[in-house]
Backbone:
């Protein structure tokens, strides 16, 4: 990991929240919920039952292209986070993780 | 890992999130999401009723006598075999609040609990449905006093790269039971 560009990764991480994925606005909220679950940062007070049921509705359409869009987005984010988390602690003191 | 799970497992995990959200909205301490892929019903019950108040005891189920007369290639024989292969439990849940509930209110509560158990009309060719969990429900009694509820619970495990059958709709009934119990306690 010696060649990691910390500034780039920090920039990537900052982009995660502001990221404007290439799909419609109606998927932004389901994406946020999935991201919170995957990052183990789920906030029960920030989500309604209806929003969770809406997300289930998307995944019930098994071959729905929206699933692939969300999953691809989350996988890319997961890669960024994995790289950041592999940085030795003394090098991440100024980076939000 | 959740991210790389199939849509069916994602749905199962999201149902777990809903189940925990239902408890959260009622003031229960949830902690984190935990491992939802491995099932959440046991954790749900522990949060709702308290870990110390729940006892799971495995039980053996004898094959019904009629099974010996069935054709081993028949659907009914197969379904009975599958039912017997499931892990069966006596599930006892102590609920001390029931002690202060009058007989009329207890009747209403048991009516709600009975909705957890499919009627015989819903059985599949006379066999308990593979997608259901609660085979029977009754009051848990000690010295003739009602101290909780008792279930015959048939566990439903994941098979063939699919998650176990959904249990959320049954957990919502338990939430309704809990809501009714709180109402009864307030008016007592």
Residues:
């Amino acid at each position: 990991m010696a060649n990691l560009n910390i500034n780039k990764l920090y920039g990537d991480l900052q982009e995660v929240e502001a990221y404007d994925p290439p799909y419609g606005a109606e998927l932004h909220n389901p994406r946020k919920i999935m991201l919170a679950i995957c990052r183990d940062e789920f906030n029960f007070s920030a989500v309604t039952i209806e929003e969770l049921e809406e997300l289930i509705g998307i995944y019930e359409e098994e071959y729905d292209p929206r699933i692939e869009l969300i999953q691809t987005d989350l996988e890319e984010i997961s890669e960024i986070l994995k790289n950041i988390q592999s940085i030795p602690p003394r090098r991440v003191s100024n980076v939000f993780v | 890992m959740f991210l790389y799970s199939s849509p069916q497992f994602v749905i199962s995990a999201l149902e777990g999130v809903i189940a925990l959200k239902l408890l959260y909205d009622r003031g229960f301490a949830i902690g984190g999401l935990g491992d939802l892929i491995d099932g959440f019903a046991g954790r749900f019950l522990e949060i709702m009723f308290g870990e110390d108040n729940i006892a799971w005891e495995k039980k053996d189920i004898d094959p019904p006598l009629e099974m010996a007369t069935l054709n081993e290639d028949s659907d009914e024989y197969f379904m009975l075999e599958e039912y017997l292969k499931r892990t069966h439990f006596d599930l006892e849940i102590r609920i001390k609040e029931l002690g202060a509930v009058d007989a009329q209110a207890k009747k209403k509560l048991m009516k709600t609990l009975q909705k957890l158990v499919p009627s015989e009309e819903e059985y599949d060719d006379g066999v308990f449905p593979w997608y259901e969990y609660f085979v029977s429900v009754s009051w848990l009694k000690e010295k003739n006093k009602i101290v909780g509820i008792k279930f015959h619970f048939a566990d439903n495990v994941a098979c063939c790269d699919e998650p176990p059958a959904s249990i959320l709709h049954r957990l919502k009934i338990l939430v309704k039971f809990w809501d009714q119990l709180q109402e009864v306690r307030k008016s007592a």
